[in-house]
Amino acid sequence: MASGRSRMDDGQVTGSRVRDFDFHPDEDKVRVFETGSAGVLRFSGDAYVSAGRYGDVVLWHYAFARHWFKVNLTTSLSGQIVGTGGDEPGSRFAVNCDIATPMRRHGDAVYAVDLFTDVLVQADGVSYQVCAWMNSIRRAPSN
Question: Domain residues for 47?
Answer without folding.
Answer: 6-139
